[in-house]
TrEMBL record:
InterPro entries: Class_I_gatase-like, Peptidase_C26, PuuD-like. GO terms for cellular component: cytosol. One of its GO terms (molecular function) is transferase activity. GO terms for biological process: polyamine catabolic process. This is Putative glutamine amidotransferase. PANTHER family: GLUTAMINE AMIDOTRANSFERASE PB2B2.05-RELATED.
Length: 249
């Protein structure tokens, strides 16, 4: 008789901030905070998973040993030195600790065979972690104006054409309308990855690993409330659970 599987445990990366930003008393202004946007975790709960926030001071590979999937959230620019370039004039805040922690999450997740989902910065970091580069700045007002923050978060402002046969196309169809909150994008594609979605101006909007359950998207699906990408994440995590259970039997 098989043992019922628990809800898959989905780990989320966050960002580091200061207590001053949430109105802490003056003496605690410099206290470090780990910040996690709740739409990521509520999306996983809605899809049947159990979310857990991952502090970047912990050992990434040790954490992944307990997880069934990893989600890399949006945030700051990735350090250009990680793909052989110097920071440009439009480079924003860089957090080397976060870069190192999340790259370790990606590497450990792939090694464990669990699904890895990268959102916005997360997609960019997957590409960098596996040997690719980034377009450091997309000019506002050109093409699809990817860096424009004029619209509400859940406003779908441009289409993405999806590659036939890809997981993304299976989830969304030939095209999907997305939001757009990024001034950087995937540049030189890393070995082992393939492009599965592009904006009308050619900017890479979705990538997938050729042999591992790894997906990156440049948009923010967590704000749409019930996006099928999180259903894929939880179902794939459950499948991974079942595979490990059978291997241990």
């Amino acid at each position: 008789m098989s043992v019922p599987l628990p809800k898959p445990l989905i780990g989320f990366s966050g960002r580091r901030g200061r207590a001053e930003s949430v109105g802490a008393p003056r003496g605690f202004h410099d206290a470090p905070l780990d910040i996690y946007m709740s739409e990521y975790t509520t999306s996983v709960i809605r899809s049947g998973g159990l979310p857990v926030n991952l502090p970047m001071d912990a050992d990434a590979s040790e954490l992944v040993g307990y997880l069934d999937a990893v989600v890399l959230s949006g945030g700051e620019d990735v350090d250009p030195r990680r793909y052989g370039e110097a920071p440009g004039p439009h480079t924003g805040w860089i957090d080397p600790q976060r870069d190192a922690f999340e790259i370790a999450l990606i590497e450990a997740g792939i090694a464990r065979g669990i699904p890895v989902l990268g959102i916005c910065r997360g997609q960019q970091l997957i590409n960098v972690a596996l040997g690719g580069s980034l377009v450091q700045h997309l000019v506002i007002g050109e093409g699809e104006s990817h860096a424009s923050y004029a619209y509400p978060r859940a406003q779908r402002v441009h289409p993405v054409a999806l590659e036939a046969g890809s997981t993304a196309a299976t989830l969304y169809g030939e095209t999907v309308m997305v939001n757009s909150y990024h001034h950087q994008a995937v540049g030189r594609l890393a070995p082992g990855l393939r492009v599965t979605g592009r904006a009308p101006d050619g900017v890479i909007e979705a990538i997938e690993h050729e042999s591992a359950p790894v997906i990156g998207v440049q948009w923010h699906p967590e704000v749409f409330g019930g996006d099928p990408l999180f259903d894929w994440l939880v179902q794939t995590a459950q499948n991974s659970q079942l595979t490990r259970q059978k291997a241990a039997a």
